[in-house]
Write a structure and sequence with these properties.
The chain is α+β, with helices and mostly antiparallel strands. It has one domain: Pnp Oxidase, Chain A, CATH 2.30.110.10. 21% of the residues lie in helices and 48% in strands. A hairpin with a 2-residue loop joins strand 1 and strand 2. The two termini are 14 Å apart. This is NimC/NimA family protein.
Length: 130
């Protein structure tokens, strides 16, 4: 598992920021997966966040594990493949309580480009670009 997916999975809750016009919006997320060598998140296509991501795919994510935190900056794109949704469900079984692979609601998005840094009060940042 790549270090970004591992960190976000260990955090359990991380925060995703989008922009709607000139207004930022931040929401808690908890589902992350690695598929096809890429980092994925998911959401419901009926939510405002999905429309915001289609209009402006730039996002930032932040989360903490112990005394370390991550800042992930990048762009996302929708992956329409059912295999990608299944990979998300396998990595996050609780999603099956909310979605089905073919329900027409669940959308998985992957980072097309991103830079992450893992920070700590006691060490230099670890930077990762993918």
């Amino acid at each position: 598992m790549n270090p970004i997916v591992q960190f976000l999975a260990d955090a359990k809750t991380f925060y995703l920021a989008t922009v709607d016009g000139d207004q930022p919006h931040v929401r808690p997320f908890g589902a992350v997966a690695e598929y096809d060598g890429k980092t994925y998140i998911c959401t419901n296509n009926q939510k405002n966040i999905f429309a915001q991501l289609l209009k402006n795919p730039k996002v930032e994510i932040s989360g903490m594990v112990g005394d370390k935190w991550i800042r992930l900056v990048g762009e996302v794109a929708v992956d329409p493949r059912p295999e990608a949704r299944e990979a998300m469900f396998e990595a996050n079984p609780s999603l099956r309580n909310m979605y089905k692979c073919d329900d027409g609601l669940c959308e998985v998005l992957y980072f097309t480009q991103a830079t992450a840094a893992i920070y700590s009060f006691t060490a230099d940042p670890v930077e990762i670009t993918f």
